[in-house]
Amino acid sequence: MSETRKHAPAPISPSLTPASKISTVETDEEPSEADLIWKGVSSSFHLPIEEWEENKDKSFLHGLSGNLGFGYPLLETPAANIPANATNGPSNTNMTTTLSLKYTILGNWFVSGTLYYYWDADQQQPWNPDFTYVFGYSDWRPYTFSLMYANYGGNRFKATDEQPVTNFNQGTWSLGWKFPVVDPVKSWLTFTDEGAIGCQIDFNYTPEYFDLATTSYMTGHKTLSLGCKYSIFGNWYVNGTAFYYFDSAQKQPWNPDYTYGFGYFDWRPGTITIQYNNYSGNRWNSSDRADGTGRFKDGSITIAYSFSF
Question: How far apart (Å, rounded) are the C-alpha atoms in residues 156 and 153?
Answer without folding.
Answer: 9
